[in-house]
Amino acid sequence: MTSIRSPLVDSTFDVVNWFLDRALNDGEYLQPQKLHRLMFLAQAYCAVAHNGRRLMPAVFVADAMGPLEPNVYRAFENERPWISEVKMSEAAKQVLDSIWRRFGAHSADHLSRAVRRHPPYVDAWTEGPRTVITEEAMVAFYGQFQAGKTPALRDDPGADDADAAPALETVLRPRVLRSHKGRPVNAMPWVPKARKDP
């Protein structure tokens, strides 16, 4: 039996509050559908960057509009509930800040259109509405992209660059650390290459 490592944050609501507060600080109202797409992408890229470790204890399902976290959807159905803020780890903040910087400027429609073309969502939706989108499917798809290389999607001649997902290196912003001489250096987590079976 495989053990599941603890997520980077204790509650999915911590991630929701972070995105809502960040949007307010940037003078933007964060639409619910955009929030769910950002959460989905954050979960996917965190799992790729941290060897399958979840960002939050969340389950995403395939909804007609795109990936949806049903508990958050229900909790925020009428208004934003009051939830106490909890201090996040630097690793969690790095993921969230990187996702916001890379995808936050896009509209809810743009993010929904793009993510609905990606195989983790497509495969779950094909199984039926409300089917769970697994972390394994997220890592397999979002982890295959490398900067400068775009693999073909499903051998679909109609697939275009909008169907591709940005490479991890272009999404997660490196942390700036200091060398032993005080100079700034970029630090990215090491991600092993996928093993190819013979």
Automatic annotation (TrEMBL):
Superkingdom to which the source organism belongs: Bacteria
Descriptive protein name: Uncharacterized protein
